[in-house]
């Protein structure tokens, strides 16, 4: 049996740099989103996913899949968002066990108010720091990794 293929110095530097960048970027974007709009990243993800659908509603199970969360975890989060008037939960007409999460007018206003500042933060902390070539490379490599992981997840499911 072969031993592990350890990372060489260049690979290790790239891997550790990516992990540190991701943590710092996620932390800063979350901090600014909460400070500027009073929304957590999961709040924003739910609201933006719902706002981008034609009827501003999704099955809870589909929303959980998009967010890579368990249905139970998302259900608890949706309950907290309901208490704040950002979303409602409706019974699914085709499946008595399923539920639909719908954007409320207050939720729509919240995401529309938060989006400009959030996009500005994404630009300030990532997009505008990259050259066009680096941005293209980031798009290519992120698609490659997502496709690889998505294929593995679908094959296992």
TrEMBL record:
Residues 11-147 form the HTH marR-type domain. InterPro entries: HTH_MarR-typ, MarR/SlyA-like, WH-like_DNA-bd_sf, WH_DNA-bd_sf. Pfam families: MarR_2. Signal peptide: none annotated. One of its GO terms (biological process) is response to stress. One of its GO terms (molecular function) is DNA-binding transcription factor activity. This is Transcriptional regulator, MarR family. It comes from Micromonospora humi.
């Amino acid at each position: 049996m072969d031993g592990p293929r350890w990372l060489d110095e260049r690979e290790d530097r790239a891997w550790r740099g990516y992990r540190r960048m991701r943590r710092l970027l996620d932390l800063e974007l979350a901090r600014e989103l909460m400070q500027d709009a009073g929304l957590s990243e999961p709040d924003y993800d739910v609201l933006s996913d719902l706002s981008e659908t034609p009827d501003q509603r999704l099955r809870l199970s589909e929303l959980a899949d998009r967010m890579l969360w368990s249905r139970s975890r998302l259900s608890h989060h949706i309950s907290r968002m309901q208490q704040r008037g950002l979303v409602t939960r409706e019974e699914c007409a085709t499946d008595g066990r399923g539920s639909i999460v719908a954007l409320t007018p207050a939720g729509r206003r919240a995401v529309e108010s938060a989006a400009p500042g959030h996009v500005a933060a994404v630009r300030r902390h990532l997009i505008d720091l990259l050259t066009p070539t680096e941005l293209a490379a980031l798009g290519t490599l992120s698609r490659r990794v997502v496709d690889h992981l998505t294929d593995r997840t679908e094959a296992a499911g």
